[in-house]
Amino acid sequence: MSTTAEFEQRRQLSDIQSQISKLTARFSRGSGPSPRDVLVRSVMCKVLANLHKSTPQAVAEQLFPYQRDIAQAIRSPGLVLKGAVAPAMTTVAGWASELVTPTVLGVLPIIAPRSAYSQLSQLPATIRADLAGHGSVKVPTRSPSPTLAPPFVGEGQPIPIRQAAVANTALTRKKAAVISEFTGEMLNRSAVDIEQLIGDVMAADTTTAIDGVLLGNAAATAIAPAGILNGVTASAPTAGGGLAALAGDVRTLAAAIEATGPLIAPTVIMSATSALIVLLSLTGGIVLSVQDDGPQLAIVAAPSVPGKRLIMIDAANFASGEGDTPDFMTTTEALLHEDTAPLPIGTPGGVPGTDPNIVAAPARSLFQTNAIAVRMITDCGWTMTRAGRVAYIDNVTW
Description:
Elements: H1 3-28, H2 35-52, H3 56-63, H4 68-75, E1 99-100, H5 107-111, H6 116-121, E2 127-130, E3 136-142, E4 166-172, E5 174-183, H7 184-190, H8 194-214, H9 242-258, E6 266-270, H10 272-281, E7 286-287, E8 297-301, E9 310-314, E10 318-322, E11 327-331, E12 335-337, E13 363-365, E14 371-384, E15 390-393
Parallel strand pairs: 2-10, 6-8, 7-8
Antiparallel strand pairs: 1-2, 3-4, 5-14, 6-9, 9-15, 10-14, 11-14, 12-13
């Protein structure tokens, strides 16, 4: 090995050791980590281990000697998502025994809490399911018609009976996979901010990937759930701008949903900019916190929503779920096709120089560009339990 190569290797090793020393000093002063901290720090240990040619467990022992949950998350990330809460519904297998209160947090709400998916799935009115070990879960729902019989009867008269229409919707498990990239320079220069860097990049990439499907209008396929706007026709915006137009749009969307039954848990989904306009313009009746009591119009503000789009959903008819075994992997040696619709790197049987798909482009060699990639794979799914419970408006005037 040349003297120059030895010097460069020692410099890189010194940088990483300095980085770890600073991180150790920082985390030794902190309080107990949140579930998001645990997951992000476990990924950070894998990134540093890859750069340092060590093991994630060894890095965790050095950075977090008294935080066993970090080492546990490295071994089994699914344990971070579990809570000691009993199942919420029936015990009949195959019907609703898998439905739970927020026992399974899910890795997506932890990694990307500001995504529309995460905020919507955590509303109290929505249905959450544990998809671990199940290909699909049946979610019960009830049609608003026929209605039950009137409760009042005359003396000595028989009480009328009418059967309510009850059905079920399948919540199917799908595989979600997101890859985030970092250059070696980003990681070396970030020093004690490496945890925030990894968390922020993964959150942004996951939000873009998941919300792009959730808020779309594509039909369900074998590999992806349907977008909540699938089959929904946009309503006309209210003209004039200002608060009057905002109120008119909310009224229009509510009326569209109420055409298929009473509106139980009205929730509007909008861009962060639109949410600021609402927050600064309105008082009372609309809240940003979903923890308050009383009838309210909840707001989900997410960066993935188009600026002039307003969506309303009856959260009581939104069901979502995730598995409990997310997989995180890091590498510095892969070749990636950097595209929103990636292709196989090479086409079997293709002829170099004549087949345009023999090598997917643009491609990045992590080794050649001194970069590292973090891949997350998790099972998740969502569904609307009834049709007609979503409405939206484009090009709002307020």
